[in-house]
Structures are given as structure tokens and as C-alpha cells.
Amino acid sequence: MAPDVVLLHGFTGSCRSFDFVSEALSRGGVTPIPVDLPGHGKRSGEIAASLFSLQSVFQSIAKASAVAPVSLVGYSMGGRLALQYAAAYPERVSRLVLESSSPGLDTDEERMKRREADASLAHRIRQGGVEAFVDEWEALPLFSSQTELPREIQETIRTNRLANSPRSLAAALEGFGTGSLPSLWGQIPTVTVPTLVLVGGLDAKFVEIGERMAGALPNARLTRFDSVGHAIHLEDPSGWIDAVIPFLLSG
Hints:
The protein is α/β, with parallel strands linked by helices. It has helices at about 20-25, 55-65, 75-90, 110-130, 130-140, 150-160, 165-175, 205-215, 230-235, 235-250, and strands at about 5-10, 30-35, 70-75, 95-100, 195-200, 220-225. Helix content is about 45%, strand content about 15%. Strands 2-1-3-4-5-6 form a six-stranded parallel β-sheet, with helices on both faces. Strand 3, helix 3 (about 75-90) and strand 4 (about 95-100) form a beta-alpha-beta unit. Helix 2 packs across helix 3, helix 4 crosses helix 5 and helix 4 (about 110-130) runs antiparallel to helix 7 (about 165-175).
């Protein structure tokens, strides 16, 4: 029986974010289970404050698969949340793939500054609407390498982003943005689940974070994709598959 693999998307994404690799995962011998995190995808439009909490995210992950323990694959925000889940419930996770992710910010001061910045961004999202925000989001240097993707792929990604509600995106940013989540830097040495850390060589910030994180996790290895940026599964899907499937099926 093919093992279940729960896929957790990044901020502004949805379960559709993994469409570019889901079929290849299935052919490779695993069962992909993409999840819409609170406020995203089919859950866009949610605004109840209780939904935008770490515990609510944990419930979404736990409900995704009847199998336990389960493998988790998380991209960016999804990777942060997957790592939080593995730290909280190590017995429920068999393997962990963290793509362009982080354990959080080191200090209270850093987290406070990030919360302030996220609150300002959340206000702009609510006031300006989703299209203006997506324009701003896609212009970030973090995503500059995605301008090299085929036009139809860029349009698909943008369409999926625009389908999200501005109120829900703002609530997600405030509820489980990087500044709102507890730092795991001090805790990850106790996270012993086998972990694959993926970084894009053009994404210097997350290369540094990924190398540090892989060094701190006791059972992790790092794979670097030199010619791509933040979204490895979009920019090099075949390379992503070649790294991820053997890891998920090993052991």
C-alpha cells in the first residue's frame, strides 16, 4: 500500500500548489494528500479567529490522513507548520520534508518586529484587496527566479493566489505568520524524525537557514538545487521528485 504523504502549501497558496508534482508522486509510489490550510483555497473566506491558530493547523493536519504516523511535506509557511507539528507530536510523523522553510526567528525582539510588519501588511491586504497584494507579493525578490517559469505556469500560480480572500489571508498572516509562531531553534535538536531539508541555491537567505537547520536536526540531510530559488517544486519539479520520493520510501 502506498504511504500517505500530507502536502502543506505556502502563504497565498492552496492544495493546488502541488499540482505540478502530485501526479509524479503518485506514479512514484506514494499517496499525495494536499491540504488547504486555514484561510486558503477552499477554506478561503474563513474569518473566525479560532481557525487561525497553531492548534487549528494541527487539527487540519491530523484530519488529513487516517494513517499514523504520516509523512509531511511542507513548503515555506507549510514547512514551518510541518516542523511545529513534528515537534509537538513526534509520534504522529514518520518523515519530514522541509522546502525553503525555517524553525522561526531566534529572539523575542525579532518576533516582535516581524509581528509588527505582518500586522501592517495584513492591514494593507484588507484595505487594498487581494489583487493589489498579489502584485506586491509577486514583486518580492524572494520570487524573482519564478519570472523564468513558462508563462502558463506563472498565470496558474497567480490565478490560485487571486482566488484567496484578502480577509482570510490577513487573518492567516496574523494567526500563524513567522512572528506569531514560537521559535523552535532551541527545540529542534530533540526532533529525531528523519528529515530532508530542501533549499534553492538562488535563495541565499533560506540556504543559510536550511544549512543551519539541517545541522541542528539530529536526523536530517540537506539537498541544494543550485539553479532555482524559493519554490523548488515549481522551478525544478523533476529534481524535486528525484530527491523527495526516494527519501519518503526509504527506511
